[in-house]
Design brief:
Order of helices and strands: HEEEEEEEEEEE
Distance between the termini: 46 Å
Strand content: 25-35%
Low-confidence stretches: 1-11
Helix content: under 10%
Shape: globular
Mean pLDDT: 85
CATH topology: Glucose Permease (Domain IIA)
Number of domains: 1
CATH class: Mainly Beta
Length: 156
């Protein structure tokens, strides 16, 4: 169900927020709203790594939360409530209200202490208060292919 909503919600192709992409901690949704889990993914990103918008949208938060820089982008599209991507710990380079395009430089990672020994970017995806796997944004359906039919005589 969420995958269909994501595909409908995105008007432009999504992209990785950092390159090269390397997932160092996978998405692990909690069983309960306040239970243990990982509500996003961590991508390898040492301090000062450029962070790019994963999809088109507008910046709805650029500031500090609990002493760490956070950037939130509400994605363009018809989903209601809309999808939001989050990036932390970062130094936002765009202010709230800015419209962004996929791949646009929006922040740099900071050296805020984290559970990643060499630094990482926590990339999250939410719909209202529900956390989703941000890798769903990168889903691109495979192109259709017609395969030869074996054992059928072609009309002559």
């Amino acid at each position: 169900m969420y995958r269909a909503l994501l595909l409908l919600a995105l008007t432009a192709a999504a992209t990785w927020p950092v390159t090269p992409p390397a997932v160092v901690h996978p998405w692990s949704p909690p069983a309960t709203p306040y239970g243990p889990g990982h509500r996003g993914i961590d991508l390898a990103a040492p301090p000062d790594t450029p962070v790019r918008a994963a999809a088109a949208g507008h910046v709805t938060f650029a500031g500090q939360v609990a002493g760490q820089g956070v950037l939130t982008i509400t994605l363009a599209g018809p989903a209601s409530p809309p999808l939001r991507t989050t990036y932390e710990p970062v130094r936002p380079l765009v202010p709230e209200g800015t419209t962004v395009t996929p791949g646009q430089l929006v922040a740099t990672t900071t050296d805020t202490p984290s559970h990643c020994p060499t630094g990482c970017l926590h990339w999250g995806l939410l719909r209202d208060r529900t956390y989703l796997n941000p890798l769903l944004l990168l889903h691109r359906p495979a192109p259709s292919r017609l395969l030869p039919v074996v054992g059928v005589v072609e009309p002559g």
